[in-house]
Design goal:
Length: about 270
């Protein structure tokens, strides 16, 4: 009588009997034996885990790079004032905005930028002249000291002129002898008072409004002791260009021409620095 063979061939797969041996089905519906299915990903046992590549291992072991510190605009060592233009003015406007100003970063140093500089100078106990020199630039850069060499720069002496201010005075002087004519700005021929000032400022790269009232409204009133060559000297209905000392260059109805003469009365002074 034949006997049942209870031996199994070596190496033959044995399927476990019972609940543990039932085929598990993955999320995709395929039968999987002896493994665990999580979602749609098949996770192999420890012996089947793929070794990490060197690049991945290096990435995992490398420390996380620190977050970059907040970058603050650093101003170049260049004096900036009303009429300046370019990338340095954009840096200035960005730095002022970091201090609470609300300027358009357009690279044009005009009335709003001028006012923001003066506000910054006022709150930081600096000379309030609207010019970004070593002291103001140093304060904006966070050092509070001059960038261009040791120490701090001395305040400009009264009535001294910068290159642009001198250019304004020189341009006005070049028109001495031109006749007075209301509403004109015709170099070598004729001017009215605001026509002369707008022409002279344009030669220094500064755009002024055309009428005298608009020019006065666009600038900043200063005392005579604070006035510098190139500023405006203003009387009711008339203005001229301060030439320093006690003189003004203006196109007046009397004597009917552009002249340089002694200041009279009690005018006010307006600056665009």
């Amino acid at each position: 009588m034949a006997q049942n063979n209870t031996h199994r061939a070596i190496g033959r797969a044995v399927t476990p009997v019972g609940t543990a041996g039932r085929a598990l089905r993955g999320a995709g519906g395929a039968a999987v034996l002896g493994t665990v299915v999580i979602g749609s990903t098949l996770l192999a046992g420890p012996a089947q885990a793929a070794p990490a590549t060197p690049a991945v291992a290096a990435q995992a072991s490398a420390p996380a790079a620190p977050a970059p510190a907040h970058a603050t605009s650093t101003l170049a060592a260049e004096k900036l004032r009303w009429g300046s233009q370019g990338a340095s003015v954009e840096q200035l406007q960005s730095a002022l905005n970091e201090q609470g100003a609300s300027l358009a970063v357009d690279g044009k140093f005009g009335k709003l930028t001028h006012g923001a500089v003066k506000d910054f100078q006022r709150t930081h106990d600096l000379q309030i002249d609207g010019v970004v020199g070593p002291e103001t630039r140093g304060a904006l850069n966070g050092s509070g000291a001059s960038i261009s060499g040791g120490g701090t720069s001395a305040p400009a002496p009264a009535h001294s002129a910068t290159n642009s201010q001198q250019a304004i005075v020189d341009a006005a002087r070049s028109q001495i002898g031109a006749s007075y004519s209301w509403g004109t700005s015709n170099p070598g021929v004729s001017f009215d008072c605001s026509g002369l000032s707008s022409y002279a400022y344009a030669q220094a790269g500064i755009d002024l409004p055309r009428t005298s009232s608009q020019q006065v409204a666009a600038g900043t009133t200063v005392s005579k002791s604070e006035a510098q060559p190139g500023d405006l000297v203003v009387w009711p209905g008339h203005l001229g260009i301060y030439a320093g000392g006690d003189t003004v260059i203006d196109a007046g109805r009397s004597p009917g021409a552009v002249t340089e003469r002694t200041i009279w009365g009690n005018p006010t002074f307006v600056t665009f620095r």
